[in-house]
Specification:
The chain is built from eight helices and 18 strands. The protein is an alpha+beta fold.
């Protein structure tokens, strides 16, 4: 298989190395040690070497420290802006008194969550044949002439064999344009995710992994046969469905063209609840995106955001609804214009 050019609207594609997940795991371990014990000189030296080894290490450590601060409901520190400040902060933090006993439970929970997440969710995508980072979109051309557009933070494996052209979607979403079946290519084209499969019947279609909610399938052209165990549904152009082990295959009123907007370099919203719009935006940018004003979660929003200028689009969307955007390391908050900083009460 060969990889073709990145879509035009991603002119400044960000390259993320294969070890990115490992860096965040190491950062979580350093953050836990700083908050659970007083580091010695040998530890200081090891941490200093780790920070100097890669410029991403300092940013990953800042994000991990933010998780600890939020977990313990501590005031959030101002973002560190220089490498020197980032390197000095762990040394100062090391001489703080040991945390109270409840930190033990926090540490155990965070470590278990981190290890469990990487083992169950991240390891297969890390080893995937094709994958994208947050905000990255890529097109791959397969040897049989099929085309796959990978969405943000997506991972999949191509597992063609003698009988079937099989693609396994491990994470994220992808738009599939399979080469048609003919005398030279008799094998069916199938996309597998979770316990189900989507078989192309001469078509363009989108498949999205929604985690515990199931798998979403939308048809842009022709038909797709969706199967889950003994259940089978054929979807026509313009139709969509979601399948899961708990609910089976359920037809939806969703518009597949709207769901595939990212393949055109945009995110389009038409009277979508604000909370849903932010969930969609979060898929295409790194870090967490959180709405603090719960009463505005159902506020309908409309707009067109360009993926190559997503942060400005987020700022405009927030301003239209009387919100301000606060960006912290690994975390972006939307709050009322007059809201105080997290961890800082009004006087």
């Amino acid at each position: 298989m060969r990889v073709t050019a990145v879509l035009p609207f991603m002119a400044e594609k960000r390259e993320w190395p294969m070890s990115d997940e490992h860096i965040h795991l190491q950062a979580a371990e350093w953050a836990m040690r700083q908050n659970m014990e007083a580091l010695g000189e040998h530890d200081f030296h090891a941490l200093e070497q780790w920070l100097q080894a890669d410029p991403r290490h300092a940013d990953a450590l800042a994000e991990a420290e933010m998780v600890w601060a939020l977990a313990a409901e501590l005031p959030v520190a101002a973002p560190r802006t220089t490498t020197a400040q980032r390197r000095e902060a762990p040394r100062r933090a090391a001489w703080r008194p040991r945390r109270r006993a409840h930190w033990g439970a926090v540490a155990a929970s965070l470590l278990a969550m981190t290890l469990g997440f990487f083992a169950s969710e991240e390891l297969p995508p890390m080893l995937a044949e094709h994958r994208t980072a947050s905000g990255e979109i890529r097109t791959i051309q397969l040897d049989d002439g099929s085309t796959i557009h990978l969405g943000s933070h997506t991972a999949l494996d191509v597992a063609y064999d003698r009988d079937t052209r099989r693609v396994r979607l491990l994470r994220g979403e992808a738009l599939f344009e399979p080469a048609p079946i003919n005398t030279g290519e008799p094998r069916p084209f199938v996309v597998e995710n979770a316990d189900g499969r989507s078989e192309a019947l001469g078509t363009r279609f989108l498949v999205r992994d929604e985690g515990s909610a199931g798998t979403w399938v939308g048809i842009l052209e022709h038909r797709v046969a969706v199967s889950l165990g003994e259940q089978r549904e054929e979807l026509e152009q313009g139709q969509a469905a979601r399948y899961s082990r708990t609910s089976g295959i359920q037809r939806l009123d969703d518009d597949p063209r709207m769901a595939a907007d990212w393949s055109r370099g945009v995110l389009e919203f038409r009277q979508e609840p604000l909370a849903h719009a932010l969930e969609r935006i979060a898929v295409f940018r790194p870090g967490l995106l959180k709405l603090l004003e719960g009463e505005q979660a159902d506020t309908p929003v409309s707009g067109l955001l360009h993926l190559d200028n997503l942060e400005n689009g987020l700022d405009r969307l927030a301003t239209q609804h009387g919100l301000k955007v606060m960006r912290l390391p690994g975390l972006t908050l939307l709050m009322q214009q007059d809201s105080p900083r997290p961890g800082h009460e009004r006087e």
